[in-house]
Amino acid sequence: MEHPSAPAHRGHIPRQGLLLAVSLLTFWNPPTTAQLTIESVPTDALEGTDVLLLVHNLPENLLGYVWLKGEGIDPDQQIVIYVIETQENTPWLLYSGRETTYHNGSLLFQNVTRSDTGYYTLQAIDQDFNNAVGTVQLRVYPELTKPNITCNNSNPVEHKDPVVLTCEPETQNTTYLWSINNQSLPDSAWLELSSDNRTLTLLRVTMNDTGPYECETRNPVSARRSDPFYLNVLCENSAGLSGGVIGGIMVGVPAVVALIAVLFFPELQCPGIKETNFSLPTPTSHRNSLFRSKTEVLQPALFAALLAYSKLLILITGRIPLPSRKRERSLFPPSTSK
């Protein structure tokens, strides 16, 4: 028995009649007799580009198509209706002006946005009012910006302060990756990652944890890497010294050493000018003996001061000072033996 809404013959149907018939069928929702295959081209779309929802395995003798948003056939989710005989697109409730339906049922999305992400359903209706339905998922991702690393404490104290590094900005559907010294994270009880991998916590730092640290963000359409980030790890023993105290010590100790050298070794002040002696001539042996006496007394003191200064540098910076490549003039002339 023929359905009451079916036409008595298959001849020409006015445009408005075709459109009304197709639109009413979405309310009636006749039984589905075939499944359509639809693919998204590309599968993962970059925001701002065009996407084609390409239809395969279309049945013959079609009356028209209806594209809807979502996984079901809901009249309130209709986007566009296409009548094959007139080859016309008729915008419907969710039409945005960026959708175009082709004769083969495929739908072109122009300038897609992240809000377009979701499922889309095509309902194809033949002239016997049979239904063929297919659903496809559209995924839209943004082009990622260059990430940057923020830190709660970039001057941590060794063996004392935890450090929290965060990869910014936070973006949905993004994978976060970390590297230390251009290598992936090692297995360590002192490293913790948040559930989304966006935050890296160093529970305890050492002098070997200065970095560089880098974070990388990825999604299916783009990937970006941050600039290297370094920590200034402080030695535990120097944490209590203020910047002014450290600066005063580092300036004062060399000044004292230089003052001792000038006061007690005037021979070193102007090595190119001979000292004028207004006193009675003194035997050379006596002057050499006097110079050796001052050297024997003060040389250990100067050596101790320089040694203390070197240890202070190690204490403050946590690094062993490297010897200068340029050979410096010794403060003490080589001793002469008789």
UniProtKB/TrEMBL annotation:
Q: Does the keyword Ribonucleoprotein apply?
A: no
Pfam assignment, any one? Ig_3
Q: Which UniProt keywords are listed?
A: Glycoprotein, Immunoglobulin domain, Membrane, Signal, Transmembrane, Transmembrane helix
Q: Where are the transmembrane segments?
A: 245-265, 301-322
Which PANTHER family does the record match to this protein? CARCINOEMBRYONIC ANTIGEN-RELATED CELL ADHESION MOLECULE 1, CARCINOEMBRYONIC ANTIGEN-RELATED CELL ADHESION MOLECULE 19
What's this protein's family per the entry? Answer: Belongs to the immunoglobulin superfamily. CEA family.
- The protein's name: Ig-like domain-containing protein
